[in-house]
Amino acid sequence: MKKLLYIILLLFPLASCDDLFKDFLTEEPETLVTNTNFWKTEKDVESAMNELHSMFREWAGSVTVRLYRDRGLQFDYLGLTWRNISDNELQKDMNINSLTLNWLDEYRTIGLCNFILGNIHRAKIPGERANYYKGQALTLRAYVYFYISRTWGDAVLITSEGDVGEKAVTPWRDIMKVVIDDLLEATRLLPPVNEMKDANGATVTSKQIPSRGTAYAILAHAYAWLAGYGEEPEYYQKGIDAATEVIRSSDYSLVSDPREVCEIVLPGNSREGIFEIDFVDPEAFNRSGNSLAGGTQKWPPDPTAGHSTRRTLLRLNNESVMAMYPDVHDKRREEYFYKLDSMAQVKTSTTQGAAYIYKFRKPLLHESGSQIGKLRGYDLNEILIRLADIYLLRAEMRAKSNDVPGAITDLNVIRKRAGAREYTPDENLEEAIAQERDKELFLEGICTRYFDIIRNRTFREKLRGKFKTLSDQDVKDGALFFPVSFYAFQNNTKMTQNIYWKRNGFSI
After folding, report:
1. Euclidean distance between CA atoms 136 and 162, whole angstroms
2. What confidence tier does 297 reach under pLDDT thresholds 50, 70, 90?
3. Residue 375 in 3-state DSSP?
């Protein structure tokens, strides 16, 4: 019955705890665990955290978050799902009721974070162990609010379980202050990744469970967002300092080469991984592992496909890949793509003129039933942040802060690992770093390239369609964010719509 407590909570994330249980306690008092007496032992706290990690995994690994909201995909051919959103013409595919715009799952996750944070003190456990769980909940809440701020901009801010009633949106900068405060506290509460222990004293190996390094890595990204998109450059040094905490830690290290990225890092919980979504195989119904693997890869990882199998969702032309990776010595050409140079010579009637993405390995096949032998997913974690990301993020912030030698050093760490040539003075340093992030983190994370481009304010140059003609006023009015869904207006007369999208098809 313990789990019932959380299931009910998740259905009504903005309701108070008393409201949730009042009727149930009246009708079936002998069968329900009340909030007060649930929190007794560390096992109780751990069970609540397990519910939170399950919910976070469901949210962050969903195809909506990983794929359907991404407006920065690097493909020449975009299926109908992405064609209009990549041009920032959301109104052609969506309306105010579209589930893609609904932030319910984000706030369900935040609601459970708030519930745990408001009740950990009830359990009789040592302070160090309470801090361990509190740090996890703070980190996950911060990460989800950071995602909300980058996706919707101004949004509802709720930081305690009893904070109920109608809510107006809070400016995104104020939400980011909460994100940073949560992460700073988490860095003080959480142990390093190699010192993480569960309630039984066993070593924690999952990189989905936040550690001190996780909090610092997200913090580095949060500061970079405020400094870049927020145009508050004083945050660059704070971001550099947070990234340095991760890089200089002995808890993380880069694997040797791009092949090991594919074969060791992407499967998950490697020494390079910092924050991930664990793959838990429910018959791989969502074809994950990695959501993008199912949408972008056919042959050769899918043994039921051939090199002439049509790719109808997303395609990247051979010429585009070669332009992205112009250095023929760059090992990512042959590790992220299957025999790029030789397959480019095969007739286009067979290949569609497109490269064969081969970054995501370890396919899983159905072993019984009518689908036997067919692809059912990939045995991979979703990698949200890894050490190479943090090196390149620090390079970006150093370049923006005029620390040219430091930026070049960080950039070259990743280039040398890939076997590519080192930076030369004839390159534009900031653009070289941005391109290196595109190369290294290709199809990883959540909207990684889109958020990179928005953070650096290069959307007019690098994105498509209406992005290229946005005015400064359009951007100020929220054109780079999503409109708010109809569902957020239900029972909330204080809710307001994003100004740009209100005049572009999403008024209510």
Report:
1. 20
2. confident
3. strand
How far apart, in whole angstroms, are the C-alpha atoms of residue 344 and residue 153? 42
Report the C-alpha gap between 299 and 369 in whole angstroms: 23
Q: Are 67 and 150 in contact (CB under 8 A)?
A: no
Read off the pLDDT of each residue in 307-319 and give the average, rounded to a whole number: 92
Question: Confidence band (pLDDT; 50, 70, 90) for 102?
Answer: very high
Closest CA to 379 of 290, 258, 272, 261: 290
> What is the structure's pLDDT at 366?
83
- CA dist 136 and 49 (Å) reads 8
What is the average per-residue pLDDT within 321-334? 98
In this prediction, residue 283 carries a pLDDT of 55
Cα separations (Å) of 495 from 167, 238, 484, 492? 7, 33, 9, 6
In this predicted structure, what is the pLDDT of residue 23?
Answer: 32
In 3D space, the residue among 454, 455, 475, 359 whose CA is nearest the CA of residue 71 turns out to be 454
| Residue 253, number of CB atoms within 10 A of its CB | 12
Whole-number CA gyration radius for the chain: 23
For residue 20, count other CB atoms closer than 10 A to its CB: 19
Owner of token pair 């007019």: 460
Average pLDDT on 319-345 reads: 97
Q: What angle do helix axes 42-60 and 104-117 make, rounded to 10 degrees?
A: 160
Interaxial angle between packed helices 172-189 and 212-227, expressed in degrees from 0 to 180 and rounded to the nearest 10: 150
DSSP 387-447: HHHHHHHHHHHHHHTT-HHHHHHHHHHHHHHHTPPPP-TTS-HHHHHHHHHHHHTTT-TTT
* Cα distance between residue 96 and residue 484, in whole Å: 7
Number of Cβ within 10 Å of residue 248's Cβ equals 9
Closest among 55, 39, 53, 40 to 7, alpha carbons compared: 55
For 470-483, give the DSSP string: --HHHHHTTTTSPP
Q: What share of the chain is helix, strand, coil (3-state, %, to 5)?
A: 50, 5, 45
- In the chain, how long is the greatest CA-to-CA distance? 75
Provide the residue type at 54 as one letter: S
Token pair belonging to 206: 């999952």
What DSSP string describes 34-84? -HHHH--SHHHHHHHHHHHHHHHHHHHTSHIIIIIT------SEE-HHHHH
Q: Considering only 29-38, 57-66, 93-102, 438-447, which range has the smallest mean pLDDT?
A: 29-38
Tokens encoding 488: 């957020």
Closest CA relative to residue 293, chosen from 386, 352, 387, 379: 379
What percent of the chain is modeled with pLDDT above 90?
Answer: 79
Split at pLDDT 50, 70, 90, the class of 369 is: confident
